[in-house]
Fold this sequence. Notes:
about 240 residues, about 25% strand, alpha+beta, four-stranded mixed β-sheet, paralog of FGE (formylglycine-generating enzyme)
Amino acid sequence: MSDFVPLRFEKFSCGGAAQEVAIYRHARTEMEFVLVPGGTFTQGANEIDSAAPAHSVTLTKPFLIARTVCTQSVYERVMGANPSHSKGPSLPAESMPFGDATSFCEKAGLTLPTEAQWEYACRAGTASPWNFGDKESDLTTYAWYSANAEGHTHPVAEKPPNALGLYDMHGNVWQMCADWHRKYGPDPISDPANSSGSGIVRVYRGGAWNSPAENTRAAVRAGGPVKLGRDFTGFRPVRIVEL
């Protein structure tokens, strides 16, 4: 944690949940992170084929997660290049393949989240389809997606954050996770991670600027080939806190 500088405590509320979180600045990237304690939640949703069955997940370790997806200014500072299709320093970095996202994380001393960490942070104590509630009509207030994004990404943190102070957990760009895309099992599980071994498709979460509303829900799982970068995929780094 020596490369994380404590900044402040701040309270956030969204979707009927309210939390006070510790906010840190990561020295290498200058990104703000929030500290998320471990806990138990219901991952997935029975009504979504790719996210069924819903099952209990326990995260035993706290983790720090970036308040925004990695921006182009941060990505270029670390990697020395900017592959993004839509250019702008505060726009999400996109169009990099999975290997380049992991290289960024390695250089910065960070990792990609597991999809369990991602969904736990996205929900932020809620159990509704979106972290702001269950009304699709409210989505335009909280997310950039196909109905309002006008065909491109938007600067990060323009929409209200969730109850953990995290921006753009729904929409703008799909967010890469460390896991291979595999079907869930029904049993309770602790610290699930499917990042080892071989596979073709890694998990993407959150939806993007070109996604219909239903694909921005917290439980929705998508995926993409590891060697292919798309202008609708980016990433949000994390750091596990070893106790």
